[in-house]
Design goal:
The complex is a heterodimer of chains A (114) and B (112).
Chain A lengths: L4 E3 L2 E4 L5 E6 L6 E8 L3 E9 L2 E4 L8 E7 L2 E6 L8 E8 L8 E2 L3 E5 L1
Parallel strand pairs in A: 2-11
Antiparallel strand pairs in A: 1-3, 3-8, 4-5, 4-9, 5-6, 7-8, 9-10, 9-11
Chain B lengths: L3 E3 L4 E4 L4 E7 L6 E7 L6 E7 L2 E5 L2 E6 L4 E6 L8 E8 L8 E2 L3 E6 L1
Parallel strand pairs in B: 2-11
Antiparallel strand pairs in B: 1-3, 3-8, 4-5, 4-9, 6-7, 7-8, 9-10, 9-11
The chains are: A mainly beta (114), B mainly beta (112).
Chain lengths: 114, 112
């Protein structure tokens, strides 16, 4: 049963600390997305990779957020330093370029920054 | 004005009711219209996908697109408690690099 995995599932940290979230996309998928979901803003696209190359990170606060794909099986999202307003659920999703409308989401990382 | 507007609800209906969920959008260039379902504490999953105008049916679910009004709908017939979830509309333009533009989601509770 192929699925996107994300770690950690929950993270509580203090303001100023570094947070790293990891995602393993579905094997064979060539697009990876990072989203942030809050009640007020809904799902916001933070970064988008195609064949491991970053295509769009315009939704990401560049001063504190960074996203990378060191290899095809791992995507990372880092926040440094973290702030209380970063508290949200962060989702990773993967898919195929020619089926762009079907994105397969992981279970999310619930981040709380105190 | 947001590109996609969706009433967040919550919507509460009795089991067996017909449910209508809606989104409006502002950009006439949008051509792909999706409905994702998100259960509590889970990631969204694709429920239905429509290209351009018209209707698409899948079991108890019908997706409808009215491009002239820039209005999309999802109908659920004979709703079940297992349909209780948040329903998000997502739309995009054509092209390989197209991003999905998401609605806020409508929370639906189907009461037995």
């Amino acid at each position: 049963d192929a699925r996107v995995t994300q770690t950690p599932r929950h993270k509580v940290t203090e303001m100023g600390q570094e947070v790293t979230m990891r995602c393993q996309p579905i094997l064979g998928h060539n697009t990876v997305f990072w989203y942030r979901q809050t009640m007020m803003q809904g799902l916001e696209l933070l970064a988008y990779f195609r064949n491991r190359a970053p295509l769009d990170d315009s939704g990401m606060p560049k001063d504190r957020f960074s996203a990378e794909m060191p290899d095809a099986t791992l995507a990372t999202l880092k926040i440094q330093p973290s702030e209380p307003r970063d508290s949200a659920v962060y989702f990773c999703a993967s898919g195929l370029v020619d089926k762009h409308n079907e994105q397969f989401f992981g279970p999310g990382t619930r981040l709380t920054v105190l | 004005q947001k590109e996609v507007e969706q009433d967040p609800g919550p919507l509460s209906v009795p089991e067996g009711a017909i449910v209508s969920l809606n989104c409006t959008y502002s950009n006439s260039a949008f051509q792909y219209f999706m409905w994702y379902r998100q259960y509590s504490r889970k990631g969204p999953e694709l429920l239905m996908y429509t290209y351009s105008s018209g209707n698409k049916e899948d079991g108890r679910f019908t997706a409808q697109v009215d491009k002239s009004s820039k209005y999309i709908s999802l109908f659920i017939r004979d709703s079940q408690p297992s349909d209780s979830a948040t329903y998000l509309c997502a739309i995009s333009v054509a092209g390989n690099n197209r991003k999905l533009i998401w609605g806020l989601g409508t929370s639906l509770a189907v009461n037995p």
